Amino acid sequence: MMLISTAAWRALVDAGLTVIPLDAEHVELQRGAAQAVLRVVSSSAVLNPSDIASLRTQHRQPVLLIVPSATPAVRAAVEAGGWSWLVDTGRQVSGLLSMAGHQLPIGSGDADAPSRRTRPGRVPWGTFMLLRRLAEHPWATQQQLAALAGVSQPRVSQALAALADQGLVHHTPAGWDVTDIDAVFQWWLHAYPGPGGLRTLWYDLEPPVKQAETVIGLLRSGDRGRTAVSGDVAADLIAPWRSPRRAIVYAQAGLDLTSAGLTPANEDDATLELIVPKDPGVWPSPTAEAQPDSVPLADLLQVMWDMSRTPGADTDEAVRRLQRALRDRREGACRRRVA
What we know:
This protein is of the alpha+beta class. Helices cover 37% and strands 21% of the residues. It has 11 helices and 14 strands. The chain has helices at residues 6-14, 49-58, 72-80, 125-136, 142-149, 153-165, 181-191, 208-221, 231-238, 300-308, 315-338; strands at residues 18-21, 26-31, 34-42, 63-67, 84-88, 93-99, 102-107, 169-172, 175-178, 198-203, 227-230, 247-251, 263-264, 272-276. The two termini are 42 Å apart.
């Protein structure tokens, strides 16, 4: 789940704000001479004033709180601490930002609207990471998986047991492996919750491949950390079939892309997504094949998941072709292990 929804992102942009994700949990907002760096805290549950007091003990820096509804008492508690808030009902966005000593109203809507959303559990990123690595590295030992996934061996053991209970992985004399790669593909498409973090949407007339190359060049010149391409553009490099329609770029820190001529966009119009992910698994395996400098690819299961949500009536067929290519890669890895 993204911390800032598309509707909230558009509400901020429509209010004249420049929105720059600094990492997966912090955003810089600019409007004229006013500027603020806020930690984004999102809750799918309805909070009360005591919850706000608890949050204030956890976060000493300014916060942008995003909730599905907020009573006047909750809004007052947030504003009393100099924090900002947004109510995102899924249809409307309203809120109040505290920036440089000034308050900026955002959007309009019913902040008191009731919500039945529940508190989400913590996402098991380590478990998803292990499945990513096993999909590419058949018959790996727990020690190898710990190194590939960057987690401890006790955590590897715990996660493998959970995946084995679902019939996704099994242990062989040669090591751990997925039980059925096609079943893993289907499970991933339905179970993976998305990369989380902060996402901004952009539009440009250039082809998506060109847009991706331009954005990666900007990110690298600005020393913004790791970058990777996913979705349509990455799938076209792995298994060419259709012309890419939307570029997806992952980065460790975001950027205001208006400097590159791109325009903030709605979900339906966007030709590029820039995502600062919370999931560390979006980056390719340490042993992944090197890609051209201009287009480093994201983790292969991430490419597949992103491909599945790109627009187009032929998306399902594009995903099936990508799955065949990934299956062929895996079978090649299996043959090399046997040899």
